[in-house]
Structures are given as C-alpha cells and as structure tokens.
Known about the structure:
By secondary structure, the chain is an alpha+beta fold. Helix content is 31%, strand content 16%. The protein has one domain (3-128). It has helices spanning 3-12, 56-62, 87-90, 103-111, 117-128; strands at residues 33-36, 51-54, 67-69, 76-78, 91-94, 97-100. The protein has a two-stranded antiparallel sheet. The structure holds zinc ion.
Amino acid sequence: MDAATREFVHTRSRHRCEYCLLLQSSAPFLTFHVEHIIASQHLQDDGIDNLALACPDCNRHKGPNLSSVDPLTLQIVTLFHPRRERWTDHFSVVNANIAGLTPIGRATAKLLRFNDPERLAIREALQQMDEWPPHRH
Ligand SMILES: [Zn+2]
C-alpha cells in the first residue's frame, strides 16, 4: 500500500477509527492502522473500498474475522462493514458505552470489545474534555 493510499484512508475517515469512532487526535499514544475490511487471506484486495482506518484495539480484536455471533440471538452474522453500512444504523453511543442496535452491531461490538473497561475509561476521560461522543457531520 502506498503513502497516498494511506493518506487517503486517514483523510476519508476524518482521522477516526471507523469501528469505535475514536479520534486519532484523542489518543496520540495509539497508532491507528489502515486495515483490510476483508482480510487479505480471504481476498487480495488493496482497493480503497476494502480499506478502513482502525484503532489498534479494534484492529487487533477484529483480526482476519469476517463474521461473529450476535450475543442476543446467537445468529452468525457478518461484521460491520464501514464502506457498505452506516455506523448509526448499527450502533448508538450511550455515555461512554457503544451499544449494538442490530445483530451486526452487537456481534461487532462484542468481538471488537468496544466496551472493555480500559476503553470505557478512555471515553469517560474524553467525555470530561468534551471530546466524546465524537462530533458528526
Ligand atoms: Zn476502534
């Protein structure tokens, strides 16, 4: 992946994780990654429609997974796809918590561990500084 592609993905995402919405500028101690939405082991696709910006926590927990299990219905569902789906259709912000609204949202929130205690602590701190929830356009 070339530098221009990387730059494009960072700018398109407005420098925030496309899964948990954490802003890179809110977490300068973390290095965000350009990740493959469908991992390369499943599909060799470096096109911009298969790339997303992800914080290291989301990136690590997602790994090469394409699907997971909705903890409520136990349905196997594909993970949230930031290019094809709209974040607000699948998730909602409740204070520091990110709640899944749909089977896709719940499965993704659980697999990517959006609400692990240390991540809640970061969002609570950001909330104090009025940097969470992120401002939408
Ligand atoms: Zn994230």
